[in-house]
Structures are given as C-alpha cells and as structure tokens.
Write a structure and sequence with these properties.
Radius of gyration: 47 Å
Order of helices and strands: HHHHHHHHHH
Shape: elongated
Number of strands: 0
Structural class: mainly alpha
Helix content: 55-70%
Number of helices: 10
Length: 233
C-alpha cells in the first residue's frame, strides 16, 4: 500500500484493496434527539388544548339567555289579592254575624221550601243559634281573617317579584283549606232541622275548598315556567 507525499490524499490502490478484501467500516455518529428541547415525546397523534366542541364538525348553537317575563308573577299576585278580598269579606260577615231575625229566618226557610224542604222560621233561627254557640262563625271568621292577611302579603310579594311570595301565597291558600275543613266539621256536629239547610251551608265550605286549591296552585305557576322563574328574585 503506497501513500502519496500529501497527507490528505489516498491512492486508488487503497480503495481497490478495501473493496476486494470486503472490509466494511461502520461509522456511528450520535443522532440528535427529536425532543432535545425538553418537549414531551410525541405519540404520532396531534394533541390540542381546545375543547372537543370546537374541533367537532357539528354546529354549536349559542346559548340564548332566558328573558324574564314579569307579567307572570304580577298576574298571580293580582289573583292572590282578589282571593284575600274574598276571604276578608267572608271573615267580616262571620265575625259580625248575629242571631238571625225572624224575618231573615222566614225568608231563608221559604227559599228552601221551594226546593223541597219543610222548614219554619223558628227552626232556622234555632239552628243558627246553635251554630253560634258552637263557635262556628267566630272560628271561621278568625281563620278567614288570617288567610286574607297572608294572601294579601303573598300577592304583594309576587307583584314585587319576590320568590318568597310563592310560599307566603301557598300558606294563605292552606289557611283557606283549613277554614273549609273546620266549617264542615262543625256543621257535622250540629243536627239540622232539614238536610237542605245544612247542605246549603256545606256548599259554602265546598266553595272555599275549591278556592283554596286554586290559590294553592297559583303561586307555583311561575316556578314551572323558565321566564317566570327568571322574573323572581
């Protein structure tokens, strides 16, 4: 093997001998790491911090804010106030009720006799006097007065858009139901001279049951509607 005088040159014989003898020279060089800058190794899948709904092909509907409808609680409040006026009138009539005069008792007996009853004015007077002694009118008058006040407060709160008005109004309606139940209970303990006479009194109690159930459901209507809930604080 011969070398030229210049150190950087290799003769053709050197290359030829290396090929013939089958010498294979492997040179290993350090490969730079693809993540030498400290980044986490990639798994081949692009990762993103964006939410899935942004990357999705499906259209995203914008969230529409619910608009408060103040007319709903105001309407309910007005109805509760009307119910309080009804209870106030009934309470005043019961608290100021006195024994029927013979003329009033006779007129009531005549109207019931047309419907098939067999009553006299004296029997009607005695029946109402017995109810008075059992505290029928006084008890109902007190309960109805409380119901009128609570319903009035609940209606005012609903008009002002206060959520508390729902529960106050429901409490007033509950008092109406209590009034009806107490009235029917007292009537059941007094023997009437004719079934039609007590039946007419029970109709009044049944009317208050219906009003109580109606007023009990009214305050919860705004809670069932999204716009109504938004109008209540």
């Amino acid at each position: 093997m011969q070398l030229d005088g210049q150190p950087g040159e290799i003769s053709d014989s050197v290359i030829t001998d290396s090929v013939i003898t089958g010498e294979v020279h492997h040179h290993h060089y350090p490969q730079p790491s693809p993540q030498s800058d400290g980044a986490a190794p990639s798994s081949g899948i692009m990762e993103s911090d964006l939410p899935d709904d942004v990357l999705s092909d499906e259209p995203v509907m914008p969230e529409v804010p619910i608009k408060a409808n103040k007319a709903i609680p105001i309407t309910i409040g007005v109805c509760l106030i009307l119910g309080s006026l009804l209870m106030g009138v009934s309470a005043y009539g019961n608290l100021t009720s006195e024994t029927l005069s013979i003329e009033e008792a006779t007129a009531l007996a005549d109207s019931l006799n047309i419907q098939g009853a067999n009553l006299t004015g004296e029997e009607v007077t005695d029946y109402f006097a017995e109810l008075q002694d059992d505290g029928y009118f006084t008890t109902l008058g007190v309960i109805e007065s409380l119901a009128a006040i609570v319903l009035l407060a609940g209606g005012a709160l609903m008009i002002m858009g206060k959520r508390l008005g729902v529960w106050v109004g429901a409490g007033g309606a509950g008092l109406m139901l209590v009034d009806a139940v107490v009235g029917i209970t007292i009537l059941a303990g007094v023997e009437p001279p004719d079934p039609l006479l007590s039946l007419s009194m029970k109709f009044v109690s049944a009317f208050f049951v219906g009003c109580g159930l109606f007023c009990l459901a009214l305050p919860f209507i705004p809670l069932l509607l999204a716009s109504g809930r938004a109008a209540l604080d």
